[in-house]
Structure formats: structure tokens, C-alpha cells
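Technical annex B. To support the medicinal chemistry partners, we prepared a structural model of the target in complex with manganese (II) ion, based solely on the information shown next.
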Amino acid sequence: MRKMQDYKFWFVVGSQPLYGPEALAEVEKDARKLVDGLNEGGKLDYPVEFKLVATTADSITKFMKEANYNDNVAGVITWMHTFSPAKNWIRGTELLQKPLLHLATQFLNNIPFDSIDMDYMNLHQSAHGDREYAYINSRLNVPAASVYGWWGDADVQEQIADWQHVAVAYNESFNINIARFGDTMRDVAVTEGDKVAAQIKLGWTVDYYPTNEGVAVVNGIAEDEIDAAYKELEANSDLVEGDNDHEKYVHNVRYQLREYLGIKKFLDDNGYDAFTDNFQDLEGLEQLPGLAVQLLMIDGYGFGPEGDFKMAGLTRLLKIAADNKQTALMEDYTLDLRHGHEAIMGSHMLEVDPTLASDKPRVEVHPLGIGGKDDPARLVFTGAEGKGYDITLSYFDDGYKFIGYPVDCKTPEAEMPKLPVAKQMWTPEIGLAEGAKQWMKYGGGHHTVLTLALSEEQLEQLARLFKVDFINIK
Ligand code: MN
């Protein structure tokens, strides 16, 4: 897969000239110490670089322009050590095209009761400096995130780390390239969308390919490559032949590995990191890609079934934000409506993301009963437990909207021996009936991304950056 930039974040501390050079030198010393503390705290996955004590409108504007054209700068973190008149920030903030985090913190985490004097107060003005600065962000309606608290605290550093992941995903969104093998499933509405609007609002390139162009690459994969992939599969999962005769089982698993390697090669050679397929358009393939798609999900590629390019982009985007942990395409598959058991069971025909697995995946081969193809191999596993968020992206006459709700994730309360797909249960925190009613009222579809790795706040931050409506049902 295309390698991401080695991203970093720039740090700028706000001040003004009237304090004099000695005070500004102190401001810089404290800011450098703060930045070192963030980098050494062990919570951040991306480094922060101290850049500037900003005292004038011109220096701020120049700084923001430089942040824009440095591709490896994923965002800007600001802190007001002293009072920094916010009119100085207007031009630069309006020009900034990268995510902005206002770190509302103070150098010391206490009031130094014994020693505090007017010299101290001339330097340490975050309490009012932060409000002056935040006012202009609010007035300009820039999608700035904010973290409030002492910079040395672990929870504050974790919030900065979470935002960094959002910022990197936002930057990378403009590099997401989606290959559509075939079109959307016939007659289906919710899987549609405007491809140009997806590029304008979310940065995604959405391109069509005839399925046979992918099939040609699949057919060209060498047997020894499949041998190696088979060995790796044996190491990471249990190969369960079940009722299949040995020869058929091995052939069908190997064919999925051929599809996996072929699709991966096609995507890599042509610069794509997400794709769609459609079970109505499998000419030249022996099986609907199942195991093949699941292995690509483990590798971090985005995927949308039935031609749903919105889900291909959204899975790729959120996998970047989540470092590909526990973030998966889902479909509202079937329901438990009994009082006290209310839950949605999520799954798909085959393509359930193994990053959710709480047990060792089993490779099984079973008939599909749809699409008229050979019995596909797929990974079967049980999903995860914990707090999560389920989100979708729908397209309307007035544009794209994110729709989602916080959910409690569970594993099924009983085995389902006759349903050979991976399974994940969840219940909206607001309740199944209320959550589902609102979901449908707002027009959310049945394809979603379920994440146990990203918080509601991170998803809201992301939606704000894209300036896309986010309907958060809670
Ligand atoms: Mn589906």
C-alpha cells in the first residue's frame, strides 16, 4: 500500500512585543519545555515541533502559510502563554488549511501561593489569553479542536494524541483513491452517491474499472506466491475443512488467496487504497471475493460491498485514524427484538473485518446461495466487546451527511452453528428502538463502519474539519 507521510505537528506559542525580549525568551523556554514534555510523555504517536513565539500578525500569517505548504505537517497546535491580541491571528488562521488544535493549558499546574507576584502575572496569562484567542476562532468559525488541562497530565496528552490521529486522517483523506470494480448493485438507492461531491468534500478520488481488468491481474498471480500466502494463512488462522473434501477445500482457499494477491497488486500498481466490488458483476471470477477482501482489510485497505464507494472511502479513512485497530465495515444483518436482549447483529455475506476478532479466525468454505458462483472461502470469527461507535455516510440532495450513534458492543449470547460468517452484536446506547428509528428518520443506510478504537469526539472533530453535517444520535 502507498506509504503515508512521516507526519509531524507544528507548535506555536502566542504572545506580543510589549513584554520585552527577556519575557519573550522566558516564554520560548517554557514552550520548548512543554513541547519536550509532550514528545517524551509516551502518549503521542506523532512528534510535535516547536516553531515560533508569535508576536505579530505578519509572523503568524507567514507561519500559517508555511504550515500549509509543508506536506509532512499534519496540523498546528497553539498555546497562549501570555495574552496574544487575537486580531493578530485573523489573517493567518483564515489562511490555514490544516487542522488546528488550541491547547488551552498553563505552564504550571498550580498557583504558586508563596512566590506569585506581578512579574509572574506578566508572564503567565493563559487563563485570559486562551479566552481572547478562542474568541477569534469561534468568530471565524474555524473547525479548531481544543484540549483543556495541564499539559503534563496523561489524560491531556491522550486527548492531544487522539486529535493527532484525526488530523492525520484528514490530511490523508485527500490521498484516498477508490477503485470501483463494476457499478453499484442494481436498483439499490442507499449505496449511491455523488462521486464529484465526494472528491470536493472529502478528497476522495472515485474511479471505475471493468471487472475484467482486475480479473486479468488475479489470473496472472503465480502459484508460488499463493503457496507462500497459504503458509501465512495457516500460521494466523485455523483451517477448518468441515464437510468439504480436502481437494475442493484447498482449491477454494487457494483461489481466494489468488484474488487477494491479484486485487492487492492491481490496487498497488494503480495507486488505490480502497475498492468496491459487486456480486452481480463477477464475470471471470470463480468466487465472490470473501477471504480475499478480509485479508485486504487486515492490510488496511478500505472496502465497500455492492459498489458502495462511500463505505470504501469511509473504512479507509477511519482505519487511518484508528491505526487499523477494531474499525470495520458492517451491515445491519439481523435483529434481536426481545425485551432485555435488544441488539443488532452485524455481519455481511462474507466480508467482515478481522480487526474485530476476539478469537482465532477459522477459514471455512461454504455455499453462498447468491451470485451463482463457487463456494467461497471466508474467515469466521466472533467480534469484540466494549464501547463503540457506529457511523455511516449518506448522500442527499443537499450533500453528504455522517449519521451515527454510540453503541455497546457484545459477542452473541449463543452459538450460530449454521451461519458461517463472522458476527458482531451491538446496541445503540440510546436504545435499539429509539436509535434505529432516528437512524432511519435521518436516512442512514445499512452499511456502516463500526469502531471500538475511535471516540465520538474524534468523529465529530473529523466531520467538522470536512464541514460535513454529523447527525449524532444519542
Ligand atoms: Mn451489503
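Notes passed to the chemistry partners:
Residues 305-306, 331, 348, 447 surround manganese (II) ion (CB under 6 Å).
The radius of gyration is 25 Å.
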